[in-house]
């Protein structure tokens, strides 16, 4: 990965003879999945608008016209039973029948972060069935790739309970269906790439001892405090029994991770292992809540970043890639990121951009931990990364302003001098670091204009900041002190 220059990507393959005709990319969208919505929270982030905005941008841009539009299908109970218990299936099947709104709210309260309404059963069956439909057609060779634009999402749903906005484990069900029920299609090894900002606990638990499935999840972990919480998303969770080594977790220590951080993980963990695993088909649990502006994720991946992440996988499995929507709650970033990915499936050529920032120091630390843990299973990861590579890093510094009710974190990247402007991105986190909220554009403008005052850090924390800048070899102690003093007297 070239961090200071152009990213070398196979996205440039569009102008050859094979690209004269669009690949056969399948799309599934069904408005009936919009019938699932929260009864007691009009502003719930997992809203029907999520799939509507994707469908609208694909149509308004003309992209949908270049794809094969498929009809959504209900999953069958015997397909769902490949992953879920009978009691779980009966719960979701019957939840929308004959229950009052108040009872639905009470039932949902028994579970972790889910809601039910009169449209939940239909939407859940359509979501799981639609992922199966796309996957089967790609496995048969009727499609080259596809995107199931579905909700509710699935990767948190466990064998016996819904969880985290998820009712059925859509990708896990489709994976088991191909491996167990359609073995004649020749899909014997499946790679699941979960780039949702939250750990895919349900998918992991389904395949934890299954060597036919390589599960890869990159997610915020924050020492187990970020949703879904616990140690399940730790890098030491690598599978068990025959599945040992086939579960890969890349747990971010902090929010704010950007394109450079994700692409470093692709280049130094995912891609080397994928080459050795050599999958027959790839599922992508395509959550876009690590995107810029997402109210739950607190990261900063751009649509371009997602397009490169996807493109780096296009050379595997003959391009047989099935994307299934998971999270993503900033409607603008969600729509643009999904569009960028479908363009990759269509072999469109994006604008080649430069990454003018390096991965965080914490990113290189996590990558090295993951590689060390997995090296016993994947010897290709045993080599130490060159010092010259990992020394190219951006420090991550948290700035606490005592007169504000929020915590502001600033990414210090490419500081020119103590008093010059530098590239920054800001996000606001609530008191609970597990639930970050991004600044709105208007908030950022208010800080830049001076409408919102930038408060200086207290003396004790200023000393901590100075120490961090000095140890990070960004500034001298004198420069760092002057920089903090000067910065707190001016608009952002």
Per CATH, the architecture of the largest domain is 3-Layer(aba) Sandwich
Q: What fraction of residues sit in β-strands?
A: 5-15%
CATH superfamily of the largest domain: Histone deacetylase domain
Mean pLDDT: 86
What is the chain-wise order of helices and strands? Answer: EHEHHHHEHEHEEHEHEHHHEEEEHHH
Q: Which strand order does the major sheet show?
A: 2-1-3-8-7-4-5-6
Rg estimate, integer Å: 23 Å
What spatial form do the alpha-carbon principal axes imply?
globular
Multimeric state of these chains? Answer: single chain
Give the helix level as a range of percent. 25-40%
Distance between the termini: 32 Å
CATH fold title of the largest domain: Arginase, Chain A
- Class based on secondary structure composition and strand pairing: alpha/beta
The top level CATH class name of the largest domain: Alpha Beta
What does this structure look like?
The chain starts with 24 loop residues before the first strand and ends in a 5-residue tail after the last helix. The protein has helices spanning 49-60, 77-80, 86-94, 101-108, 120-140, 170-181, 201-206, 259-277, 303-311, 331-345, 361-374, 387-390, 441-449, 459-471, 477-487, and strands at 25-28, 68-70, 145-148, 190-194, 213-220, 247-252, 281-286, 321-325, 396-399, 407-411, 426-429, 436-437. Helix content is 34%, strand content 11%. The chain has 2 domains: 10-374, Histone deacetylase domain (Arginase, Chain A, 3-Layer(aba) Sandwich), CATH 3.40.800.20; 396-487, no CATH class. A hairpin with a 6-residue loop joins strand 11 (426-429) and strand 12 (436-437). It has an 8-stranded parallel beta sheet, with helices on both faces. The chain has a 4-stranded antiparallel beta sheet with strand order 9-10-11-12. Helix 1 (49-60) crosses helix 10 (331-345), helix 5 packs across helix 6 (170-181) and helix 8 (259-277) runs parallel beside helix 9 (303-311). With 492 residues, it is an alpha/beta fold. The longest helix has 21 residues, at 120-140. The radius of gyration is 23 Å and the shape is globular.
């Amino acid at each position: 990965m070239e961090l200071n220059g152009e990213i070398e990507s196979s996205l440039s393959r569009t102008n050859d003879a094979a690209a004269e005709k669009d690949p056969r990319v399948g799309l599934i969208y069904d408005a009936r999945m919009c019938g699932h919505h929260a009864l007691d929270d009009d502003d719930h982030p997992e809203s029907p608008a999520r799939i509507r905005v994707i469908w609208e941008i694909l149509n308004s841009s003309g992209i949908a016209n270049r794809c094969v539009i498929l009809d959504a299908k209900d999953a069958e109970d015997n397909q769902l039973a490949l992953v879920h218990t009978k009691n779980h299936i009966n719960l979701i099947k019957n939840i929308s029948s004959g229950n009052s709104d108040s009872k639905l709210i009470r039932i949902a309260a028994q579970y972790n972060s889910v809601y039910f309404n009169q449209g939940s059963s239909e939407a859940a069956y359509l979501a799981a069935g639609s992922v199966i439909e796309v996957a089967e057609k790609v496995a048969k060779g009727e499609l080259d790739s596809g995107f199931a634009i579905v909700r509710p999402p699935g990767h948190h749903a466990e064998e016996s309970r819904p969880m985290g906005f998820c009712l059925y484990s859509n990708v896990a069900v489709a994976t088991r269906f191909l491996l167990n029920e359609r073995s004649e299609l020749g899909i014997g090894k499946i790679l699941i790439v979960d780039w949702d900002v939250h750990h895919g606990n349900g998918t992991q638990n389904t395949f934890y001892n299954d060597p036919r499935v390589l599960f890869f999840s990159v997610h915020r972990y924050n020492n187990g405090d970020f949703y879904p919480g616990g140690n399940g998303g730790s890098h030491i969770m690598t599978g068990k029994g025959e599945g040992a080594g086939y579960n890969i977790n890349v747990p971010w220590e902090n929010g704010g991770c950007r394109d450079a951080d994700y692409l470093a993980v692709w280049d130094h963990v995912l891609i080397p292992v994928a080459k050795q695993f050599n999958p027959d088909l790839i599922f992508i649990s395509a959550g876009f809540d690590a995107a810029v502006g997402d109210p739950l994720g607190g990261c900063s991946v751009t649509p371009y970043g997602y397009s490169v992440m996807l493109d780096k996988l296009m050379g595997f499995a003959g391009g047989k890639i099935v994307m299934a929507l998971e999270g993503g709650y900033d409607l603008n970033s969600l729509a643009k990121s999904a569009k960028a990915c479908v363009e990759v499936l269509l072999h469109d050529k994006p604008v080649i951009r430069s990454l003018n920032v390096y991965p965080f120091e914490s990113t290189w630390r996590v990558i090295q931990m993951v590689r060390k843990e997995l090296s016993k299973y994947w010897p290709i990861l045993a080599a130490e990364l060159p010092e010259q590579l990992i020394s190219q890093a951006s420090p991550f510094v948290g700035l606490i302003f005592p007169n504000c009710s929020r915590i502001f974190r600033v990414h210090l990247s490419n500081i020119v001098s103590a008093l010059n402007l530098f590239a920054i991105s800001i996000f606001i986190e609530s008191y609970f670091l597990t639930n970050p909220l991004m600044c709105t554009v208007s908030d950022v403008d208010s800080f830049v204009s001076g409408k919102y005052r930038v408060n200086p850090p207290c003396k004790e924390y200023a000393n901590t900041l100075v120490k961090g800048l000095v140890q990070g070899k960004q500034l001298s102690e004198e420069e760092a002190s002057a920089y903090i003093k000067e910065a707190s007297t001016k608009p952002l």
